Amino acid sequence: MPEPTNAPPDVAEPALVPDGHGPEAAARPLGEAAPLGPRSVTTSASLLVTLLLLTAMVFLRVPYAVSSPGPTRDTLGEHDGVPLIEVDGTQTYPSTGELRLTTVSVAGGPGFPITVPQAVAAWISGERTARPVEVVFPPDVTQDQLDERNQAEMTSSQESATVAALEELGYDVPADLLVAGTVEGTGAEGVLEEDDVVLTFEGASVTSYTQLVEALDATEPGATVRLGLRRDGDPLDVEVVTGEREGGGTQLGVFIDPQFDLPVDVTIRIEDIGGPSAGLMFALGIVDRLTPQDEVDGEVVAGTGTMDVDGSVGPIGGIQQKLLGARRDGADWFLAPAGNCDAVVGHVPDGLRVVRVATLAEGRAAIEAIGAGDGDALPTCTAG
């Protein structure tokens, strides 16, 4: 039997742990804080600096502009209880479909720089794009100047869309063809003057901008043409050597500011959107309002494109964001300018069908075909 003992029960000795590195490190009791070594101090300082840098980056401004899908508006409908298009002076007709203009929202314009996180989020987003601000906006322009320019372009776009729509419907839209200036290096320089009014072309009266364009289209570049003018109230004949327009065709070498005399009163009310890219959808909205046919017949058609008074549809910027915005707001069809087709291919959202148009007449035919259920036969954008 084990011998009895009066020894006290076992008491655990304080555990010893190394305080430092290596076998020579001094032992310290468990739970006692170790003094910071050089490596710990360096790591802590690095983490603090990194945190401060990350915090600063959140507020750091960068010279980039971010484009994202903007709002759409139905040119056949109302916004804030006000019709976008109103026509007085002739009969109008109801519509059951939608013709939606599309927009791009841009952050990072002059005076409103974006932050690093905003730029990074755009770079990794499938819906937004970030580009150097100088690529998106003219240099040395203020936000006020930009707003004024966008509003002026919108006003001009509405006028051109109205004229093109009325002429598409067979109206005569007379105009005084006022010379706003001449193109440097052309035959018109030094021959025509600002505020001249063009009255005739090769002896034939020109009373509309479309007539002048058609006359030029029938003229070979380099030909000398005779113009009848009104200068300071007096008649005057001059001769001008025409030139070749960039992209083909004949140019007169003058800037024309047509003063239109509209046969009906068309009012387009839209205050929060600028730029010229809604011209096509404005023109189609006017056509739909003034014809008894319900062109889109319940379909939702979106689109974009500038509109010249002769009915030509021009390309615009940001079409990929506009495609996304159109689909987001319920559009099944999208009218795209022929000049934007390269940017459309490969970027069409699921469920959206794109139709290529180059003129207002093509756009009108497209919405009529879509409303009739024949949209699948319409031309689309293809690679190359």
In short:
With 384 residues, this protein is α+β, with helices and mostly antiparallel strands.
How would you describe what is shown here?
Residues 189-240 form the PDZ domain. Residues 275-353 form the Lon proteolytic domain. Residues 1-35 are annotated as: Disordered. This is Endopeptidase La. One of its GO terms (molecular function) is ATP-dependent peptidase activity. The protein has 384 residues and is α+β, with helices and mostly antiparallel strands. Among the domains are: 64-105 and 141-164 and 263-377, Ribosomal Protein S5, domain 2 (2-Layer Sandwich), CATH 3.30.230; 175-260, PDZ domain (Pdz3 Domain). It contains nine helices and 24 strands. A six-stranded mixed beta sheet has the order 10-4-8-20-23-24. Strands 11, 12, 13, 14, 15 and 18 form a six-stranded antiparallel beta sheet that branches. Strands 1-2 form a two-stranded antiparallel ribbon. β21 (306-307) and β22 (313-314) form a beta hairpin. The radius of gyration is 34 Å and the shape is globular. The chain starts with 15 loop residues before the first strand and ends in a 13-residue tail after the last helix. Mean pLDDT is 85; it is low at 1-26.
